[in-house]
Structure formats: structure tokens, C-alpha cells
Design brief:
With 119 residues, this protein is of the alpha+beta class. The protein has a single domain, classed as Creatine Amidinohydrolase, Chain A, domain 1. The protein is built from 4 helices and 5 strands; from the N terminus they run H-H-E-E-E-H-E-E-H. A hairpin with a 2-residue loop joins strand 2 and strand 3. It is elongated and about 50 Å long. The chain starts with 6 loop residues before the first helix and ends in a 9-residue tail after the last helix.
Amino acid sequence: MQCLVPKTMASELITYIQGKDTLMDKKFYVENRRRVAAHMTGNEAMLFFSGEPVRKSADENFPFFTNRNFLYLTGIKQEQSVLLLLKKGEIISECRFVTKPDGGTAARRDGVRVFRQFA
């Protein structure tokens, strides 16, 4: 699989991941998506997946780490999430799909999920 984020952007992301655990400004992610979409031509679509948790044993997962490309474009650190970038002519649209939080057992077990209006 080829990295879709240029090396300069990837190094910024690694510095961010290693140095901070707080979310960055929303404008940072909006600008990142704009720069990636600028490389798209004509009628194209790009899908980015956050990833799936890896099983450690029958009842435990390894700590989850979001796909770096997905994190760089969204800032969302949550499994089973998707970012879709579409370009039709000069019009760029984006759609984020996040798992609906249940607020019950899964939230206590896995942590609170991102709500749709904040994604």
C-alpha cells in the first residue's frame, strides 16, 4: 500500500503524535484535507480507514492506534471510522462515517466514541 500523505506531512504527523496527546485546531485538519484533495484530478474518490483493533486474546485487544493517514486528515482516534473525499470537477466534498456511540457497556469497556456532530 502506498502512503498518500507526502513525506513532509507525514513527518509533521509523527512529531504531533510523539509530542502531544491533545487534539489540534480544527483548521489544521481542514487544511490537510484540502491539500490532499488538491492532488486529485477530475472525478475521483479517496477512502481512508481508521483501522480495526487487533486481538490479543479471546477477550482482550492490543491498544488501538489509528491509521496515520486517517489521523492526519481527521484528528479522530477511533476504530471503525472512514473518511471519504470526492472530487467532481472543481467541487470537493467529504464525508466521515463514525460508529454510533451506545453510551452503555461498550463505552465503559472501550471508552467513549466520537459523536457524529463533532466528527
